[in-house]
Amino acid sequence: MDILKILSRGTKRSANQQAIQKPIAKPSNPQLFNDPTRGVKRKRNEETASTLEADGDLDEINFFAPRVAKKPSPEPEIQEIPKENVPKPVLDEEEVRQVLRSHRLKFTLLSSHEEKKKKVKKSKKKEEAKSKAKDVKKQLFPQPLTSFSELRSVYNISTRLGENLVKQGYRIPTEVQLGSLPILLQPDRAIPTSASEELNFKTDNGIDFLAVAPTGSGKTLAFLIPAINNILRRKAGDKAQKEHVLEVVVVAPTRELAHQIVNEGRKLAQGTGVKIVGMKKGMQIPAEGQVDADDGDTSGSEDEAGSADDDSEGEQKKMTTTKTDILVTTPMLLRNYLKSRTLPTVKSLILDEADVLLDPLFREQTLGIWSACTNESLRLTCWSATMGSSIEGLVLEQLKSRESSTVPLIRLVVGLKDTAVPSINHKLIYTATEQGKLFALRQLLHPKSSDGSMPQIRLPFLVFAQTIERATALHDELKFDIPAEAGGSSRIAALHSSLSDSARSSIVARFRAGEIWVLITTDLLMRGIDFRGVNGVINYDVPTSAAAYVHRVGRTGRAGHEGGMAVTFYTTEDVTYLKSIANVIALSEKQAGKSSEESVPKWLIDSLPKVDKDEKKKLKQRGVESRRGAKAAKITTQSAWERRKEHNKRGAIAGSKKRKTQETVNDDTQGQDDSEWGGIGD
Ligand code: ADP
Ligand code: MG
Asked: Which atom of ligand 1 is nearest to the CA of 217?
């Protein structure tokens, strides 16, 4: 019996398969974990539990319960409330611990603030034991947010900012929000003085922060609310400061994600006077220092020739400087602009998808931006769903080398590190060969003609391919599969970094609007992108690391939406990838409280081959070797049974024309690394 085949078992067959299924939008609770009985032996604190349950009933009227609702004011508005008048946080120590446990939040102090003592040689064992004991000690228990209304009543955020939150329908804070908002808004209020005194750190100048929380769990709001509010707070303190001064830089790995953050930010900051801008090629921002005359600002490997914002250097010089409070950028764009210039006014650097930004691929640019932020009170926050210990180590080292030893680096982990969100259903499908994948994908697209062996997956969905070439080829192969009466080839698109910026934006907008139902893409879209209605993710080519799996499948099941399906095809060649993916699935299902071994039995995981570190690194960087290069991009079936049904001659000609132009583009880029991360090049 083929052991690989068995991984596909357990697939539930749908009794009632339909031809093309439209998405169903279901209201959901954005919280992933809330078990008030967790970790409680016998005694349950009823009061705390009821506070939490009541959150679900919050409505717009009582959102700012302690204050009388009033009309939005046009000006940025924060009233300085004397500290002694601000109500004390509501939970006592035991209640705090219980809420943190129930929502699976764990805070750890990563930095060390002990005064240097004379080194005394100790045996290794003793040291290990001591550091273990210290780790336990270093766990922190800051006040969580029990409801959004506390943002105003306890943490004194801007009225307008709070109203904007309500307007967008946010009612219950997600775990990462309830954990991180208090310590980012007012660390001295949220962290007990006893803890900072004991561990020798100070919070009056803010904290450096690292948050590891599941995909789709609302990290964007968790960093944008404090960013906007801190700017408003400083503006309120300085009446003359109506002008926009660049205080916050948000770095994200792709343009799509940067655009999304700008959009979220603008909705939140509406009417507050805080300006948020996305960095563009050729844009001038207020930076200090000179750049050599022959150092153009537009150098660098911009990946699309002739894009709309591709200004000549001469034109740039005439351009005025863009003033803004918050700048959102990809690492390459800002790094190329800065050269040796600095950003002395920036007080907060936010790294979204920090582990990839600090991965060797983007490390130089990201660290370059970081060192250009020369302000002494610069604080750093890092956000991701996955975070390796080497990345944490790097952050700690960098921080040590630049700032006062009293500023703490605190890490928040929500749930189990490096797992997928509990609301996703995982399926591994063995297709034996490459051709088998195409056949399987067609079955998913046309459930009526399926032999019943495939899971049911609702449109719209995302399909991930390993390279740009493969995404293009798969698109060419499938684009006539959707019947003309359902919208035909306009319902399916491919999105990758060889397209122009405007083509990329247009595809994203059409997918968001529900016009595109199947979006074939590469790892360009695996991180951060929030498409609310995505019902499924298909890994046409296996993801090449556990983190890649977590992020790709995390495009579904966002904000607590149930029923997202993650299907991964694998062939005999993919065996080296399976163990880490199967482990992620098993751990995620365990965390979700699903019956153990639902998708992958333990004995099977044990029988999969182990992959050593070097091989893992190679896989991550290069993907499956046989799927690289132009030849490997060919994705086709001989039978072409589906094409016969839908294809018309005109469509076929148009398709082959597109293929030819695409091949020319691909030829131009040959010789470069064809993996997507190598090709973003903003
Ligand atoms: P992450 O960065 O953690 O992957 P996002 O910040 O992109 O997640 O948020 C995912 C989705 O959840 C977005 O559509 C966002 O609007 C929504 N969301 C965020 N916070 C809440 C909340 N408290 N209640 C409901 N939905 C939320
Ligand atoms: Mg995000």
From this structure: 3
Among protein residues, the one whose CA lies closest to atom 23 of ligand 1: 173
Q: Which residues contact residue 509 at a Cβ distance below 8 angstroms, ignoring those fewer than 6 apart?
A: none
Q: Which atom of ligand 1 is nearest to the CA of 172?
A: 23
Cα gap 75→659, rounded to integer Å? 54
**Within 10 Å of residue 49's Cβ, how many Cβ atoms?**
18
Q: Is the pLDDT of residue 570 over 60?
A: yes
pTM equals 0.81
- Peptide bond before residue 30 is cis, with ω within 30 degrees of 0: no
| pLDDT tens per residue, range 491-510 | 999 999 999 999 999 999 99
Q: Is 206 in the pocket of ligand 1 (CB under 6 A)?
A: no
Ligand 1 contact, 379 CB (< 6 A)? no
Q: Is 532 in the pocket of ligand 1 (CB under 6 A)?
A: yes
Range of the domain at 213: 103-112+134-289+320-414
Given a contact cutoff of 8 angstroms between Cβ atoms, the answer to whether 583 and 621 are in contact is no
State whether residue 370 is helix, strand or coil: helix
What's the CA-to-centroid distance between 660 and ligand 2, angstroms? 36
231 Cα: distance to centroid of ligand 2 (angstroms): 21
Cα separation, 39 vs 102, whole angstroms: 8
Question: Does one domain contain both 490 and 558?
Answer: yes
Work out the angle between the directed axes of helices 255-269 and 501-512 (0-180°, nearest 10).
60
User: Does ligand 1 have an atom closer than 6 angstroms to the CB of 111?
Assistant: no
Distance 560 CA to ligand 1 centre (A): 9
Same domain, 653 and 505: no
The partner residues of 380 in beta bridges, in order of sequence, read 349
Please, what's the b/e burial string for 186-195 (b: 16 or more CB within 10 A of its CB; e: otherwise)? bbbbbbbeeb
Structure tokens at 330: 């990809």
Question: Per residue, what are the HEC states of 572-584?
Answer: HHHHHHHHHHHHH
Phi, psi for residue 278 in degrees, rounded to 5: -95, 135
* Predicted local confidence at residue 16, as pLDDT: 38
Closest CA to 90 of 40, 50, 30: 50
Q: Which amino acid is at 614?
A: D
Site to probe by mutation for ligand 1, drawn from 217, 256, 381 as the one with most ligand atoms within 8 Å of Cβ, is 217
pLDDT for the residue numbered 312: 42
10 Å Cβ neighbour count for 621?
Answer: 15
Q: Which atom of ligand 1 is nearest to the CA of 222?
A: 6
User: Is residue 62 assigned to a domain?
Assistant: no
Q: What is the pLDDT of residues 20-30, one digit of tens each?
A: 444 444 446 77
Q: How many of the other CB atoms lie within 10 Å of CB of 616?
A: 18
Distances 444 to 332, 439, 565 between C-alpha atoms, Å: 38, 9, 12
218 lines ligand 1 (CB under 6 A): yes
What is the rounded CA–CA span in Å between residue 492 and residue 514?
A: 11
Report the run of H or E that residue 462 belongs to, with start and end. strand 461-464
Whether 193 and 232 map to the same domain: the answer is yes
pLDDT (tens digit, 9 = 90+) per residue, 158-168? Answer: 999 999 999 99
Atom of ligand 1 nearest to the CA of 220: 6
In whole angstroms, give the CA distance from residue 524 to residue 537. 14
* 30 CA to centre of ligand 1 in angstroms: 8
Question: Which residue reads 């343009």 in tokens?
Answer: 255
Q: How many domains does the chain have?
A: 3
In this structure, are 163 and 284 located in the same domain? yes
Residue type at 430?
Answer: Y
557 CB under 6 A from ligand 1? no
Locate the ligand 1 atom nearest the alpha carbon of residue 214 and give its number.
3
